[in-house]
Amino acid sequence: MRRADGSVPGSVRRRLTRYLTYAQDLRSRGAEWVSSRDIAEGLGLTSSTVRQDMSFVDFSGVSKKGYETIGLEKVLTSMLGADTVWNCVVVGAGNLGAAIARHEEFARRGFSIQGIFDNDPRKTGRRVGALTVRPISEMPPFVGRHRTDIGILAVPAPAAQQVADLLIASGIKGLLNMALAHIVAPRRVAVMDSRIIVSLMELTHLIKYPPERGAGGA
Amino acid sequence: MRRADGSVPGSVRRRLTRYLTYAQDLRSRGAEWVSSRDIAEGLGLTSSTVRQDMSFVDFSGVSKKGYETIGLEKVLTSMLGADTVWNCVVVGAGNLGAAIARHEEFARRGFSIQGIFDNDPRKTGRRVGALTVRPISEMPPFVGRHRTDIGILAVPAPAAQQVADLLIASGIKGLLNMALAHIVAPRRVAVMDSRIIVSLMELTHLIKYPPERGAGGA
DNA sequence: TAGATTGTTAATCGATTAACAATC
DNA sequence: TAGATTGTTAATCGATTAACAATC
Asked: Range with the lowest mean pLDDT among A165-169, B1-5, B88-92?
């Protein structure tokens, strides 16, 4: 059931990104068509879920053939905003922040890292890839001037909310939170958590207590 | 409703990690007690959800006071395996893999990075933090010898399944998948996805189509 | 045509929230 | 005691799966 405003339930959103990478992969390997059953088997879902999810997407399959991979890739790319360049800044020039700033994959995927900021005077002035680490005090005007869309929080947990507030006040549209802290933001600012340590803790729990066959896993 | 085998629904597992970091944070700031209402407000949940989740945890609150932060931290630490050292290897010595191998936070949290592997001859032999990058061919005996629990996949997507198969055959217990690929593994091997690019894509979708007030967000 | 696959409706299942007796 | 908070049961809500008519 497609919604008028294009929003989708969170459960569906999480799968749309997987459908996109799957479609890209298929197309790069020359497949022209893919059925809901193929997708389901490839990603560990049921074909019902796939078809139900597709009802949120403005794209129709063809009976007996399935979905055309080119079209599927195109519509999901647009829906997820992967056809746009998103201006990003990284806050925190530690191991993780620096790795993101240096990683070419982000630019390739449309996430342009415009600047990297840190308050540690031993880090400011250093070069990280093509960028120079600047003090956080320079961040608010920078974000305003460069029309930055996304702030990537790679700072220690105790600093995270403070930095988030600064980014929000500077007009950021979304935050990727890599810090081990819960970020509070007004509703107009999207927040997405992405934390390797948390994933590792979930993984160790999963190793210690494997889910009964069937029950909702990863 | 606590289960006999200690397993919990995935939805609850994801929140347990948050309760743990919240309890650690509270305790480090000197709080002795916390109520389900406090936790709910701190993490953006309802107190009902918190109490329901706590019924999966072998720990009781005290009426009129709430939960003792020390005890809560202790039981969640044990439940999530955060009181154990987990032996890890990183496969892929690119930006992300190297950042993980260098990051002290992992060791501090009980994730001991024992080795880092890569097939690129320009990378093997290089030092990354305290480790030396070894060729992937050395990985299987290494994993056997060091009783490695967890493999962290930081390789390009096309190589991910192949590397995963190698780790699985070597007796790994869990995989943290940072590659843009779906990993197929036998049921005895736990797999957890953790991908920054995917989180960014979900974030841009969230920016483009903000959920209606209420509906399931992050 | 026969068969495969979509799109959608209905049924099931699970997760969240509300409500409230029990407790300290 | 009165009031606050837990633990749990019941109600609601949402997500997944099953089923099947429509289609090519």
From this structure: B1-5
Query: What pLDDT is attached to residue B217?
Result: 38
Q: Which nucleotides of C are covered by protein (CB under 7 A)?
A: 3-10, 14-19, 22-24
Q: Which amino acid is at B179?
A: A
- Listing DSSP states for chain A in one string gives ---TT----HHHHHHHHHHHHHHHHHHHTT--EE-HHHHHHHHT--HHHHHHHHTTSS---BTTTBEEHHHHHHHHHHHTTTTS-EEEEEE--SHHHHHHHH-HHHHHTTEEEEEEE-S-TTTTT-EETTEEEE-GGGHHHHHHHTT--EEEE-S-HHHHHHHHHHHHHTT-SEEEE-SSSPPP--TTSEEEE--HHHHHHHHHHHHHSPPPTTS---
pLDDT for A218 equals 35
Q: pLDDT of A79-90, one tens digit each?
A: 999 999 999 999
Cβ contact, residue pair A81, B207, below 8 Å: yes
Å from A64 (CA) to D22 (C1')?
Answer: 12
Q: How far apart are CA A113 and CA A90, in angstroms?
A: 7
CA distance B179 to B155: 6
Least confident piece of the model among B2-11, B12-21, B158-167: B2-11
Residue nearest to nucleotide C13 (CA to C1'): A215
**What are the tens digits of pLDDT across the range A9-38?**
999 999 999 999 999 999 999 999 999 999
Whether the CB of B52 is less than 7 Å away from nucleic strand D comes out as: yes
pTM above 0.85, yes or no: yes
Spell out the domains of chain A, with CATH numbers in brackets: 10-79 (1.10.10.10), 86-199 (3.40.50.720)
Per-residue pLDDT at B10: 97
Give me the residue from A20, A81, A176 closest to B199, CB to CB.
A176
Distance, Å, B51 CA → C20 C1': 14
Please judge whether A25 and B157 are an interchain contact, meaning their C-beta atoms are less than 8 angstroms apart. Answer: yes
Alpha-helical (H) ranges within B29-122 are 36-43, 47-54, 69-79, 95-102, 104-108
Helices (H), B139-186: 139-145, 157-169
For the residues A106-129, what does the mean pLDDT come to? 98
